[in-house]
């Protein structure tokens, strides 16, 4: 499974941005039953931002609830993260992740995309 992210960049506080991540390669559909986004900031481990199952069950970090929306298109093997009302503290490298189970972090990772929120 290869995960390719798009989106990211520099925005002002309060603005919006959408990230996309497409899974490609040869794999069973169950391999990406759960897709999500993690962030990593210097000196910290990767932290979950949001995840979504194939059945569209979602989970969010408390810090983004009400601002971020995760969605997926199963036919396109793609997950999206709509980020609204961005804050300076949302600045991080965002990594796409995929795996077969919601109980463990998936084994597949994208290359990461930088999101910078700054005035």
Provide a quick synopsis of the model.
The chain has strands at 2-6, 9-11, 17-24, 34-40, 47-53, 58-60, 68-73, 78-83, 92-99, 108-109, 113-117. It is an all-beta fold and 119 residues long.
Number of strands: 11
**Portion in beta strands:** over 45%
Mean pLDDT over the residues = 95
Shape call: globular
Number of helices: 0
Radius of gyration: 13 Å
Structural class: mainly beta
Order of helices and strands: EEEEEEEEEEE
Characterise the protein shown here.
The chain is mainly beta and 119 residues long. 0% of the residues lie in helices and 50% in strands. The strands form two sheets. Strands 2, 4, 5, 6, 9, 10 and 11 form a seven-stranded mixed β-sheet that branches. The chain has a four-stranded antiparallel β-sheet with strand order 1-3-8-7, with no helix packed on it. The relative contact order is 0.32.
Outline the fold blueprint:
Blueprint: E1 2-6, E2 9-11, E3 17-24, E4 34-40, E5 47-53, E6 58-60, E7 68-73, E8 78-83, E9 92-99, E10 108-109, E11 113-117
Parallel strand pairs: 2-11
Antiparallel strand pairs: 1-3, 3-8, 4-5, 4-9, 5-6, 7-8, 9-10, 9-11
């Amino acid at each position: 499974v290869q995960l390719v992210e798009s989106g990211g960049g520099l925005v002002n506080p309060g603005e919006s941005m959408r990230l996309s991540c497409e899974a490609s390669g040869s794999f069973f559909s169950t391999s990406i039953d759960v897709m999500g986004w993690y962030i990593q900031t210097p000196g910290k481990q990767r932290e979950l931002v949001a995840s979504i199952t194939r059945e569209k069950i979602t989970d969010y970090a408390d810090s983004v609830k009400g601002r971020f929306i995760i969605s997926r298109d199963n036919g396109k093997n793609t997950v999206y993260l709509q980020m609204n009302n961005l804050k300076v503290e949302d600045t991080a490298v965002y990594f796409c992740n995929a795996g077969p189970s919601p109980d463990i972090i998936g084994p597949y990772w994208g290359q990461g995309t930088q999101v910078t929120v700054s005035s």
